[in-house]
Amino acid sequence: MSTKDEMRSDILTRRAALAALGVGALALSGRRVQAQAGKPDEIKVGIATYLSGPASVFGVPARQAAELLIEELNAAGGIAGVKLRPIFFDEGPGVDHFVAEYRRLVQSEKVDLMFAAISSADCLACAPIAEEMKRPTLLWDCSTQRIFEEAHYDYVFRTIGNSTPEVLAPVLYLLKYKPNFSTVAVVNQDYVWGRDSWTMFKTIVERLKPGVRVVAEMFPRFGATDYSSEVTRLLATKPDVVFNASWGGDLDTFIRQAADRKLLERSLFVLPLGESSLERVGKSLPPGHIIGARGDHWFLHPSPEDAKRLAAFTENFRKRTGVYPIYPCFHMAQAVFAMKAAYEKALVTKGGVWPTDAELAAAFKGLQFPSLTSPVKIREDGQGLANMLVGTTVADPKYSFPILADMVVFPGEMVTTPVGKSSFEWLKTLEPDILSRVPQPVTSRG
Amino acid sequence: MSRYADLVLTLLAAAFVLALSWAVPWLRFVMTIAIAKGLAVLGILLLLRAGQVSFGHALYLSLAAYVVAFMAARIPEVLLLLPLAAVVAASIGLLVGLFVSRYRAIFFGMLNLALSMVFYSMLDKFYEVTRGGDGIRVPVTSFAGVVLSPDQQSWALLILALVLAVGFGAFVRLYLLSPMGSALSALKTREARLEFMGIPARRILLSAYVLSAFMAGCGGALIALSTRHVTPALAYWTASGELVFIAILGGAGSVFGPFLGALAYELTRTYAAALVADAWQMILGTVLLVVILFAPGGLWGIGRALVVRGRQA
Amino acid sequence: MGWLGDNGMLLGLAMLDGLSYAAAVFMVAVGLNLVFGVMHVLNVAHGSLYAIGGYAAASLSLFLIARGMPPWLSIPSLVVSSAIVGAILGPPIERLLRSVSGQEEVLQLLVTFALFMILEDLQKLVWGVQPVVSDAPVKLLGTIDVPFGRDAIPFTSYQLFLLPGVALVTLIGLAWFLRRTLAGRMIVAVTVDREAARAMGINAGKVMLLTFTAGAALAALGGALASPTTSLVPGIGASTIVLSFAVVATAGLGQIEGAALTALMIGLGRSLAVYFAPEFEVVVPYFIMVSVLLVRPQGLFAVPETRRI
């Protein structure tokens, strides 16, 4: 069955359900207890992503990646012969709606697995529910380090890194390869990630390069349209380094307004989420700035585990959408690959008998699975250990936008907070010798 | 409609909600949220009677939700938390009300919106305390001294919501029939006449405002207790707009309207989201437009018209 | 240079940014204020018109450039695309509003709320979710160095001249139109007293159609003017509404000059906040609104209203 047909039948069943609500027929289907024996007809995956609002910049490409990957997986026979069916839902309307949808998908649609979510608030809200409902849940994109540092879960796993390595890697890169700076400034979105990432930046720099002066700390409104005051202040105070961990439209707007006024020629920018804006801002972003990718997500990764797989995915994604895949696509791929690997691991453990929810959940602990770039491991606390790629922008005649040179792939173990420690405390104990362990930069085949 | 008919209808509606929640477990949560929002909308309806539209009542809803989130660790008891949160919301409502009850029409609406947006910004701003956009997890609470299983707790909250809905519904019905209620309507048509009769219009509006804040507070506490996670998004202006939306959808003519509207709203949204995950707003907007254009009395108005026609036939 | 000198110069820079931001805020709010004054409808869909205006302008200028047209065309195309958006979306929305005009005012407001929800998804269907921008006008106009001590701070001419210029032309043009032309006076007449205007033979329906279309075009122009510097994303309309509502309530009913003054206060206030109290940047518009309404409950430029008995 093609996806379109699947989607239609999906809609039909819901339409039927809608009609049945009045009659009460849905009542029966709702209370039926799920029997777990033998191979199911299909594996249903609930996928929470942003389909509306500013974060749909990430949510929609991730959905496209999921559709592409699941189609390919199904064409190759699914997981142990069982096909997958994704059910997408929008995180846009807020936490209460998200929680309602989560419960509905578990109790009514009987999804086998949940991929949630982009928003850290949604992840924090659903983790305890996942535990309560005993539904294996993969945190596929949210970055808050709080989840596994503040609680223990048996059904919740993160298939990517978290905000600590996402900040630490670019800062280590800065300290190791562009260490000649004495003043810094920040322009971050005014919300938790903007504030937390700046606190981390400051903590790391204070620890590893004491004496750096902060000349401006600015936190414009989330979704701001005008950064002229911020840019003017940066031009006037001339910081050596400008840290900006914004994303989406906000980052694009900031880069453009800064570029229009030559700020990018005066200060070195450190952009931990820059990878996702490169293609859109194009030549506005000149060479020489530091770019992170919330993992080692880069379609020109210098040393992917399987170069052919990465090239094929990039090609197919471009064919479908017209743009290069950005990090949320890679994150989605990691969730899909982790799911496949866990089922296969559980099947092997049980000698080919289909696993129960608990057995599937157990399989995620310590699981090592492939990604589009380098393999990822899920630690015993549920946190993923993923490598982090940082590079410097460079112009390349083959592309209409800057690509990355002098790339460093940080090993996940090196930059991730150890199990049982709080990130903010751990960062305070970093030793200067960590800089000597930073890998050599490489420039790939462009 | 007669008091007897209203009573029967109330019991039938409550039974329907309980039956549906038993039959379809995931609906239990949706229903609780819907009734909680209905409580806040009941307050909007009160102000609508006075011709005033508050575009900021999410302030009281979110305030109470945050009170619950903050205090749940210290007072882990639903039956104490809920009144506490509602009283805090009503007290702030009194303070704000003293200020906004001087204003009418757009200024009333906009000041409410502005204050709720200031609260929204503060929740984000003081993120060391509020944890900003990540929100706060509400710890496990007991119900009447008993720690219930998650399943039992969801039943308890639904029943509590129903009891509050019936109680406040009856109270507001009496309130509207009382001289206070008549004064509210008079405030809408000709405020000066009210003043000439020696009735202080501001105080009339203020008391309705505080009552509406109290009910929104109950709703907010219920939302926090059932979602078990609160975020600043609860205070964003679209959340306030949603409450006004529900008031009109359900119909401002009866105390049944807010709850009917809230249930219809939540169910439409759920099914719209399931049907077309990326265009649910369009469906919701269209539903509202159709209701306004063809049934300005709201869903309650439609139902009533049907009943009346049925009797005539 | 002493502390005072440094800060004095920073203040000067802050003024420049404040002025250009004020111009942007004025352009965002002026259309809403006009519509509100005449029709007494708080148009929530204003934010959507702003967003669609921005998208349309970006699309048109990208199209022109892709066709190899001279890039200077991208500047007039901002105005042209806004006029088109106003002409296409204004009349049908006005028609919808009129169909509920006999009923409570809150219903009209909710019609626009419903339209806002519908347009929000529609805009996503047409332009997708990826940020859209067309920066040809900014690039075309280049930058100007403003001296700052021994240094020079580049500002874009677009920000320093075009934006305030358009705002000033709009302000003066509207003021002239409303005070000096017959059509304008009809609008004012309807604003002050719809019934009396009708009794004097003014076709109130026509006036409203005209005003709403103009208001929609101005909303679109606000978005169009932002499109060369701002990446347009889903949700941009929702955040615009709050700002423009604050301006309208602070300014007073339909007061164009009031909107200009409010925009100026917000622009300068925000800009100063970025330098001297960045913590409070976000709440500046609300702070200004609440303080103004505390002193003048009907807004800055209130028309004294007779008490109806």
UniProtKB/TrEMBL annotation, chain B:
Main location as per UniProt: membrane
Keyword set, alphabetical order: Cell membrane, Membrane, Transmembrane, Transmembrane helix
InterPro entries to which the protein is assigned, alphabetical: ABC_transp_permease, LivM-like
TM region positions: 33-51, 58-75, 81-100, 105-123, 155-176, 204-225, 245-267, 279-302
Membrane topology: Multi-pass membrane protein
Location in or out of the cell: Cell membrane
GO molecular function: branched-chain amino acid transmembrane transporter activity
GO CC aspect terms: plasma membrane
Pfam families from the UniProt entry: BPD_transp_2 (PF02653)
Source organism, top-level taxon: Bacteria
Name listed for the protein in its UniProt record: Branched-chain amino acid ABC transporter permease
Native source organism of the sequence: Bradyrhizobium nitroreducens
UniProtKB/TrEMBL annotation, chain C:
Major place of residence: membrane
GO MF annotation list: transmembrane transporter activity
Matching Pfam families: BPD_transp_2 (PF02653)
Keywords from the named record: Amino-acid transport, Cell membrane, Membrane, Transmembrane, Transmembrane helix, Transport
GO CC term, one of those recorded: plasma membrane
InterPro entries recorded: ABC_transp_permease (IPR001851), BCAA_transport_permease (IPR052157)
Membrane topology, as annotated: Multi-pass membrane protein
Annotated PANTHER family: ABC TRANSPORTER ATP-BINDING PROTEIN (PTHR11795:SF442), BRANCHED-CHAIN AMINO ACID TRANSPORT SYSTEM PERMEASE PROTEIN LIVH (PTHR11795)
Family the UniProt entry places it in: Belongs to the binding-protein-dependent transport system permease family. LivHM subfamily.
Protein's name in the database: ABC transporter permease
Organism of this sequence: Bradyrhizobium nitroreducens
